[in-house]
From TrEMBL:
The chain crosses the membrane at residues 12-35, 41-66, 78-109. It comes from Cardamine amara subsp. amara. InterPro entries: At3g27390-like. This is Membrane protein. Keywords: Membrane, Transmembrane, Transmembrane helix.
Length: 132
């Protein structure tokens, strides 16, 4: 079996690129560890404030709409009015937990991806975006 033409050149190109990739990955991880908790806290605080602040209005409006609708019968309406507190009480908790996970993901992956985008082919000054 013969070695295909260009195989050694491609292998050398791959091996010589690995240290560059590993250093960029480490830089991205360091940036993510510094920026991640701050952005996660900002996202969690903002989203939680909106969720908790608007929850009473949503609770009241849901019950008002359910009580006033004529599309469902009396039995289903009564059952819904009795059983709706459970999902309405769990919804803010699910929203806050989702905001926490979303904030962590955003705070971790955005700096990591920005590090690799900064050294892309279309960027002329490759060192300056890495430090931002």
């Amino acid at each position: 079996m013969e070695v295909p033409i260009g195989f050694l050149q491609k292998l050398w190109s791959f091996i010589s690129f690995l240290p560059f990739f590993v250093l960029l990955l480490l830089l991205g991880l360091i940036k993510a560890l510094i920026i991640g908790p701050v952005s996660s806290a900002i996202i969690l605080t903002g989203n939680s404030a909106v969720i908790i602040g608007l929850w009473p209005a949503h609770f009241i409006w849901t019950y008002y709409c359910l009580a006033r609708t004529k599309r469902i019968g009396l039995v289903l309406k009564t059952l819904a009015l009795i059983l709706f507190p459970l999902p309405l009480l769990l919804w803010p908790i699910a929203g806050i937990v989702g905001s926490l996970f979303g904030g962590i993901a955003y705070g971790f992956f955005t700096p990591l991806m920005a590090t690799f985008e900064a050294v892309g082919e279309s960027v002329t000054s490759k060192m300056l975006p890495l430090l931002n």
